[in-house]
Write a structure and sequence with these properties.
Layout (H helix, E strand, L loop, with lengths): L8 H6 L1 E6 L5 E8 L5 H17 L7 H17 L1 E5 L2 E2 L2 E2 L4 H10 L2 H10 L13
Antiparallel strand pairs: 1-2, 2-3, 4-5
């Protein structure tokens, strides 16, 4: 088998499309471009997340602030996996793509985090020889 058929890195860097679904399975108008775990951006985001978590580990008695910090770091990590979006609105107005707006979306709709991670970790979606869906 040719090594090019094993390549997930190129498509991981470019990202693949993903349609956000409601918990019912119904598709929304929001389309995300999600990177894969073979990308350098994913590796950098994971390293930053691990650093933030390491700072919290020495704390023995967890209080709400630690949980909030951990949740925020997790949301920021997941948001970093999104390269772009289309169709996101707020009050009927287009919502610009920014890391802060993606974090905000994840905070109001935490179920989307699982959808993003499922795509990012699905190496088959990033194979160069496989069309992305």
């Amino acid at each position: 088998m040719d090594l090019s058929n094993l390549n997930t890195k190129d498509q991981s860097e470019a990202g693949v499309p993903m349609t956000v679904r409601l918990p019912t399975g119904e598709e929304t108008d929001i389309k995300l471009t999600v990177i894969g775990r073979s990308s350098e951006r994913f590796a950098a985001a994971k390293l930053e997340f691990d650093r933030k978590m390491a700072k919290l580990r020495p704390v023995r008695d967890r209080d709400i602030d630690d949980v909030t910090i951990e949740q925020r770091a997790d949301d920021e990590f997941t948001a970093t996996l999104v390269l772009d979006w289309d169709g996101a609105t707020d009050g009927g107005q287009p919502l610009p793509f920014t890391l802060a707006n993606v974090v905000r979306m994840l905070q109001v709709a935490p179920y989307i985090k699982g959808q993003i991670l499922k795509v990012a970790l699905d190496d088959a979606r990033f194979l160069a020889r496989t069309p992305t869906a």
